[in-house]
């Protein structure tokens, strides 16, 4: 254990020093680079929101040229794009906005493909979706969430689940809505994740360790069930979200 601490402490000390300043509004100022892995609607929306809030953010792409062309068509060519390997290596925070993976083996393979994530903060914005109409049902027969499987596969990283309980339209106009997140107990890392959530426009609310990704993924299943026909609920809109009321 002492050896592990000796290896990881310098990494997290550096990350903390980069991110431990506060501005006049008492916001935690993030100086570390953020890589968003995933060039789809979720990834680009999160990247744009963070860029607009003056965060150092890049989109990590397998094909940077193709991704840049896509962003230009969407009039978001101000966003920075880098090759995935370079972006992940040079960033202190990685947001996963990739296609869903339902099975443990796929999640483990994906985690391995990321390379060395030691000392990095990983924010998992994905859900372990099976093919529709079953949706997230594939996890109900298991004892862990997709977030927990990812965290176990990346033991040297600080893994969090966030941004998975709403549709992309709410990321475009977060407007201070609640955003619950779960993950590592490290307070410095939590502050960084909370400030990233604020940067997108949400109000962060830490709910506990990564095991509570089970609850967040279940909330995501309920949102999908209610928002996307023909999954059973007689709803006509995606324009709703789950909030925390009272004074928890």
What is the total number of structural domains? 1
CATH top level? Alpha Beta
CATH topology: Rossmann fold
Beta-strand content: 15-25%
Q: Percent range for helical residues?
A: 25-40%
- The CATH architecture assignment turns out to be 3-Layer(aba) Sandwich
Mean pLDDT: 85
Reading the helices and strands in chain order gives HEEEHEHEHEHEHEHEHEH
E-strand count: 10
Quick overview of this protein structure:
The protein has nine helices and ten strands.
Verbal overview:
This protein has 248 residues and is an alpha/beta fold. It has one domain: NAD(P)-binding Rossmann-like Domain (Rossmann fold, 3-Layer(aba) Sandwich). Helices cover 40% and strands 17% of the residues. The chain has 9 helices and 10 strands. The protein has helices at 2-19, 41-52, 64-73, 84-90, 104-113, 146-153, 168-172, 187-200, 213-227, and strands at residues 21-22, 28-29, 34-37, 57-61, 80-83, 93-96, 121-124, 158-161, 178-183, 203-208. Strands 5-4-3-6-7-8-9-10 form an 8-stranded mixed sheet, sandwiched between helices. The radius of gyration is 17 Å and the shape is globular.
Strand and helix map with partners:
Layout: H1 2-19, E1 21-22, E2 28-29, E3 34-37, H2 41-52, E4 57-61, H3 64-73, E5 80-83, H4 84-90, E6 93-96, H5 104-113, E7 121-124, H6 146-153, E8 158-161, H7 168-172, E9 178-183, H8 187-200, E10 203-208, H9 213-227
Parallel strand pairs: 3-4, 3-6, 4-5, 6-7, 7-8, 9-10
Antiparallel strand pairs: 1-2, 8-9
Domain Pyrroline-5-carboxylate reductase catalytic N-terminal: 33-128
Protein name: Pyrroline-5-carboxylate reductase catalytic N-terminal domain-containing protein
InterPro entries: NAD(P)-bd_dom_sf, P5C_Rdtase_cat_N, STEAP_metalloreductase
């Amino acid at each position: 254990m002492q050896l592990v601490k000796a290896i990881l402490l310098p990494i997290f000390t550096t990350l903390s020093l980069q991110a431990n300043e506060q501005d006049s509004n008492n916001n935690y100022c993030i100086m570390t680079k953020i890589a968003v892995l995933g060039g789809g609607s979720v990834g680009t929306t999160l990247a744009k929101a963070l860029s607009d809030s003056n965060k150092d953010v890049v989109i990590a792409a397998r094909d940077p040229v193709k991704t840049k062309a896509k962003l230009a068509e969407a009039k978001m060519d101000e966003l920075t794009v880098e090759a995935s390997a370079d972006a992940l290596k040079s960033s202190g925070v990685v947001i996963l906005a990739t296609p869903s993976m339902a099975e443990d083996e796929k999640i483990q393979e994906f985690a391995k493909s990321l390379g060395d994530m030691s000392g990095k903060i990983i924010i998992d914005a994905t859900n372990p979706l099976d093919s529709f109409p079953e949706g997230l049902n594939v996890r109900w027969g298991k004892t862990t969430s997709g977030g927990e499987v990812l965290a176990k596969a990346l033991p040297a990283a600080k893994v969090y689940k966030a941004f998975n309980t709403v549709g992309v339209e709410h990321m475009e106009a977060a407007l201070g809505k609640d955003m619950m997140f779960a993950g590592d107990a490290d307070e410095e890392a939590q502050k960084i994740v909370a400030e990233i959530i604020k940067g997108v426009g949400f109000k962060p609310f830490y709910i506990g360790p990564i095991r509570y990704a089970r609850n967040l993924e279940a909330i995501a299943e309920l949102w999908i069930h209610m928002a996307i026909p023909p999954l059973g609920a007689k709803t006509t809109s995606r324009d709703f979200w789950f909030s925390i009321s009272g004074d928890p």
